[in-house]
Design brief:
10-stranded antiparallel sheet; mainly beta; disordered C terminus; 31 strands; 7-stranded antiparallel sheet; 4 domains; Maltose phosphorylase, domain 3
């Protein structure tokens, strides 16, 4: 889909010269396409979410052919030759050779991007030639200045003139951080960008902080600063979990986040938005499941639209979803949220018993059943009882239990494909005794 989107916008850019198509190409190249490819260049993600872990896959699938095709279009979109004009659609250090009015022209660009907003174009010709030069002006780069160029319809236009070998055009553009405030499903969240790059918080680069899902951005100037080194990385201030004391955090481009298999997140809590007081005790735990599956969300990210499944095309007598903590906690309530119902499974088969809740009291200890999700519907292997995505089921313990790990275990369903079976989970949460009033929980369970 991403490569097809690139092909469409490249053709529209060629046909119309519309700067908005170049903007869309740039946004896609630097972010979603690059984020799907491992920095080594050999592996690709089939799905690339804005949070969680990147599922790089060495197997043969469409991404391993379509992804490189998309990357091959990057240089083709960077410089375009019109009938009497050169269109420059990149600020990268680069060069291109093209034909204008029957003459061969080479354009060389030496740039400080992506660290500073400065670059220089040099025209190479064997003989003088007359043509215009148009430099794309993306919204993040405004204002762009290039000699006496006038900005028209998203391009800084240098009118047709006679160019000689070695003529130079000095370009200056705005390169800074911006705060993007979320809406709809990301209401209460915000993200940072640097020029065209969407930034993300990678847990592996921030070992002293809470999980990215618990972090909040802080209103500060500058929003972030460039860190020294060859890798493009930034330092900003965040608040972690219920702590209000600002702490430094490292952000990297979304394309680089999660490259080592760690948890990352683009959307963090927006400045001025208070953390959730009724936070699950499992929020900073390590999640696991009985089978890896092919959905790469998270079950302890407080996002009920982010799911995992155990689908692998095979049958299994039981499936489980677990979160393990670094130290034991006392819990009196466990909440399991169903992930998603598919035609061929995704729920638990409760015909022989409801899904069970188990705990480990010590690290590596035996799993002990402490109850079942009695409010789980009477599903069967083929009947999902119209189970809705994100629906919550709660076990209230008669007395608090000490646990270092919690899991929900049950029989997976097969739906209309009896040759396999799998289950899904959106969220697994546990709460300490009397952490929330009964009416708040009633509202939560009525989701």
């Amino acid at each position: 889909m991403t490569t097809t989107w690139i092909q469409l916008n490249l053709q529209l850019l060629r046909l119309t010269g519309g700067a908005k198509y170049g903007d869309e190409l740039e946004r896609t190249f630097y972010n979603h396409l690059a984020a799907a490819q491992h920095p080594r260049g050999d592996d690709w993600c089939y799905y690339t979410a804005l949070e969680g872990r990147k599922p790089y896959d060495k197997g043969i699938n469409c991404c391993h052919s379509s992804g490189p095709r998309g990357m091959a279009l990057v240089p083709q979109s960077s410089y375009l030759a019109g009938r009497d004009a050169i269109l420059v659609s990149t600020f990268e250090t680069s060069s291109a050779r093209m034909e204008i009015g029957g003459r061969q022209v080479t354009v060389e660009q030496q740039s400080q991007f992506p660290r500073r907003g400065e670059s220089v174009l040099t025209i190479r010709l064997d003989k003088p030639a007359t043509f215009a030069v148009k430099i794309r002006v993306p919204s993040w780069a405004v204002p762009v200045t290039a000699e006496s160029a006038a900005v028209q319809s998203g391009w800084a236009v240098l009118p047709a003139r006679e160019w000689r070998d070695g003529d130079r055009i000095a370009i200056n553009f705005n390169l800074a951080a911006r705060l993007v405030v979320g809406d709809h499903g990301n209401a209460g969240r915000a993200a940072l960008t640097w020029g065209p790059f969407v930034l993300a918080c990678d847990q592996s680069l921030n070992p002293g902080l809470s999980k990215p899902r618990s972090l909040g951005l802080i209103e500060s100037q500058p929003l972030c600063t460039l860190k020294p080194g060859t890798q493009l990385a930034f330092e900003t201030k965040v608040a972690g979990g219920m702590k209000s004391q600002p702490m430094p955090a490292t952000l990297v481009p979304f394309a680089d986040a999660g490259a080592e298999g760690g948890v990352y997140r683009v959307w963090l809590r927006a400045p001025g938005v208070a953390p959730t007081a009724n936070e699950s005790l499992l929020a900073d735990g390590t999640e696991s499941r009985s089978r890896q599956g092919n959905q790469y969300g998270s079950i302890n990210d407080d996002d009920f639209d982010s799911i995992v499944v155990t689908f692998d095309g095979t049958k299994s007598k039981e499936d489980w979803f677990a979160v393990t903590l670094a130290a034991p906690v006392n819990i009196d309530r466990v909440v399991f949220a169903h992930g998603r119902t598919f035609h061929d499974g995704g729920w638990f088969d409760a015909s022989a018993g409801k899904p069970r809740v188990q705990v480990q009291r010590g690290t590596g200890g035996a799993w002990e059943t402490v109850g079942e999700l009695s409010d789980y519907p009477g599903t069967t292997a083929t009947d999902n009882q119209q189970l809705k995505s994100g629906r919550k089921f709660t076990l209230r313990l008669t007395s608090p239990e000490k646990a270092v790990a919690v899991r929900v275990i049950g029989v997976p369903a097969c739906g209309d494909n009896p040759g396999q079976a799998f289950s899904s989970c959106a969220e697994l949460q546990a709460f300490e005794p009397q952490q929330s009033p009964p009416d708040a929980e009633a509202k939560a369970e009525s989701r």
